[in-house]
Amino acid sequence: MAYLVSDEGKDLLRDVQEFVNSEIKEQVKDYDISGEWPKELFDQAVEMQLHMLDIPEEYGGLGLSNIDHAAILEAMGYGDAGFAVTLNGNGLSFKPLLVAGSEEQKKRYAEIIVNGGYGAFALTEPNAGCDAGNVKATAVLDGDEYVLNGTKCFCTNAQIADFYVVIASTDKEAKVKGLSAFLIDKGTKGVSVGSHENKMGIRTSITSDLILEDVRIPKENLLGKEGDGFKIAMETLDIARTWCAVIGVGVAQRCIDEAVAYAKTRVQFGKPLAKNEVIQFKIADMQMKTEAARQCCAHSLTLMERGEDYSMASATAKCLAGDAAMFAATEAVQILGGYGYSRDYPVEKLFRDAKIFQIFEGTNEIQRLVVGRSVIGKI
Ligand code: COS
To answer: Which residues partner with 184 through β-bridges?
Structure first.
């Protein structure tokens, strides 16, 4: 995406690339093993305003174009997927506000993020993953307050969040059309978080359950109207999937670069691996799939910026990027051979990190369902 970046975006992109190369790439190695959340690294990222890329200028954000934002996020994903996912989590939590928030809500929660805070988007439940409409958390209006109960899982940033956007049912009979979206502030009585999930990859991203027990919030914390929750969640995911895809492209690109660097120096049968056609073909396939995914991200972001329908384009980008990341990671491990399987080389971590891009923000099976339904249209 870097070749499309505007003159204004170039300085920040260069700073991010330097930060990634000098700090992130090396330091995350230890955190990847310990699973500890690297607060100091994120504090540095907040200093650089990388936690607020999604906040519009009118609410104190940087006012980046979609393409500039994407190039910066790709560079972050290139350095460490968990690092990018954590900071992008703020975007995910602020998008429901952009979709349905009042001016007052947007201003209030943008200010929390701009001041260095984090948000978390809580939709998924143990029995509402792909079937997102099957949410069982409830919200009951009691006077001027809603009372929320339920358990959310796999919630990115739950442990560090200053606010949560929670999808809960206000009308069980109405099923999907009875879901509503709420804003809950950190520290509200009855809110607790589970322990940090011991994940296969993106280990610098913190993930946990969010537990709601008789949580009382002012009724003004409803986002949009009662019954709008599923639509808000789907519109949020429509946007979020492209940003997730952009990080996946960063992971895929890193796999290519690591594999090429190795293939140029590793000598077997008297010549560098890179001189073998079989390796060149592998690199070519990695590159072609990655570039195709990158261009689909650019396509989706362009439609978004023009105010055109991008739901299918976003699902396409997410699916292609997830598959490209996993393909590139698998081939990178293969090219490095035994060293690719060793924790002493970076591609083993990239392989574990890549897998999540076929799973989160809607599995790639769900993305294919979204694309298939969009192409076929009403039957
Ligand atoms: N934008 C706006 N509205 C949407 C929408 C979208 N992208 N997708 C669906 N809707 C609306 C539909 O139009 C429908 O409303 P109407 O009956 O008024 O037309 C309603 O929502 C229900 O839609 P649908 O029947 O398609 O819902 P399904 O239960 O079949 O679910 C999928 C649709 C599978 C696409 C959805 O459940 C999904 O995205 N699942 C994956 C969830 C996910 O990504 N989870 C990851 C967690 S992210 S933190």
So the answer is: 164
CA of 279 to the centre of ligand 1 (A): 42
For residue 378, is pLDDT > 90?
Answer: no
CB 160 within 8 A of CB 144: no
Global pTM reads 0.97
* pLDDT digit string, tens, across residues 94-140: 999 999 999 999 999 999 999 999 999 999 999 999 999 999 999 99
Ligand 1 neighbourhood includes 121 CB (under 6 angstroms): yes
Backbone angles phi, psi at 285, to 5 degrees: -65, -40
List of domains in the chain: 7-114 (1.10.540.10), 119-227 (2.40.110.10), 231-376 (1.20.140.10)
Cβ of 232 below 6 Å from ligand 1: no
Looking at residue 376, its pLDDT comes to 98
CA 160 to CA 171: how far, in whole Å? Answer: 30
Mutate to test the pocket of ligand 1, among 167, 208, 234, 247 (most ligand atoms within 8 A of CB): 234
CA 126 – CA 273 distance, rounded (Å): 46
| Ligand 1 atom 35 nearest Cα | 370
Residue with tokens 């339920």: 150
* 361 catalytic per annotation: yes
The label of the residue with tokens 């949009």 reads: 224
Q: Which amino acid is at 309?
A: D
pLDDT tens digits, one per residue of 245-302? 999 999 999 999 999 999 999 999 999 999 999 999 999 999 999 999 999 999 999 9
Residues 86/206, Cβ–Cβ less than 8 Å? yes
